Amino acid sequence: MQEQIRENISQKSQQNMMYVRELFKNAADVVFREFKIGNLNAGLVYIDGMADKTLLNDFLLEPLMDSGENITPEQLMDKIIAISDMKKITKLNDGVNAVLAGESLVFIDDLGAALTIANRSWPNRGIGEPSGETVIRGSREGFTETIRFNTALVRRRIRDTRLKVEPSQAGVRSKTDMAIMYIDDIVNQDVLEELKTRLKDVNIDAILDSGYIEQFIEDDKTTPFPQIQSTERPDVVAAALYEGRIAIFVDNSPFALIVPAVLAHFFQSPDDYYNRWISGSVVRIIRLFAIVLSLILPASYVAMTSFHTGLIPTKLAYAIAASREGVPFAAYVEALLMEAALAFLIEAIIKLPKPVGSTIGIVGGLIIGQSAVSAGLVSPIMVIVLGLTAITTFLIPNYTVTTAFSYFRVMLILLSSFLGLYGIMLGLIFLLIHLTRIESFGIPYLAPAVNTIMKDLKDLYVRMPLKDFKERPEFLEPKDKVRQK
What is the pTM of this model? Predict the structure, then answer.
């Protein structure tokens, strides 16, 4: 339950300081400084390590303590304190929250209010290249864990007064700062209002990452497919805002969330737009072909070898039969074992440090594959099938979508072990039905393919030249539909 803090601020600085001291009892990192301003008592509260002490010493304490005797509290604010970002608050709860957020709180006798000084200065990571979204051509900047740095990186790319940043907080105890960013005359107002409603309903002790928010505001919690796009790249966020979408920033997280998000968004990469349109289109077609291949290749191998051997050319059938001689498992068990080995290997690569992970990936894959073949547990053909599946899987830019498709790949393997090619067809139909029922903030997940909006197909299966992008995506229903004249 949220801690109850009195709202009224006493006229006496010492009474306010005593109350705040009691609130922060046994908190060694909270600094309390009481001093005199002429004949007035004053007090300062901040958290060591989160506030800029130089600014406090040079532009707050020194001017105040050197001021004359007969100065009113209002004159101190208007003439003495040389700090630009300063607010006058009338509720003590707001002041305590400001201290917890890294700001400083000042009490002065007879003011009847308190002052908050925006002098946050906590340790932070420098801006570097995002490791999860590498591109050949484009910006090398990535988000950090500081929310104000992240919004500034986007603001640098959108120099428009209509770019709005609405602050809020989430987490009853953590009081994590958040921000909603959108372009006012482009955004779909219905989506914006729905997002604000869902964010208000978030009621949890702590928000430690943007992934918490994603799980609270997504439409369908039973599907493995993501309905909210996450990214570490400011240029991706800027491009989404220009389309009429909305970005959500959470403090302490280098990942921004973008809503709404459809399946097509997860197959797009910044390289598709920064390179010439022919290259971008070819790569996108390869990407779409790769996901289909990764989805059905192991299941097709199981179906062909178990039920439909007549569809395999004779020489190839003999080669497969010879390679499977001595393998004690059925084809589907063989495929499931290799899928499990691939899942273990991928998880190990992700969790280990980069230099070690890449080595483990290469050496582990070779050793496990060769040892399994030598021991007669799997056939060489199955190792080839698994290798092609792994390569095509890694062509998908978004890891979460890759994981979702891997679940359905296992389902297709099981169906093909009982029904052959008919099982694969039934599984694909089920997958299609599942995708058609998903929505992201009211937008169909398979849009624009299911909306039959022809002009939106310019950026779906291929990427047409930029001069053809006269209007924003129609399926997002932006207010300002024209982006190029």
Answer: 0.88
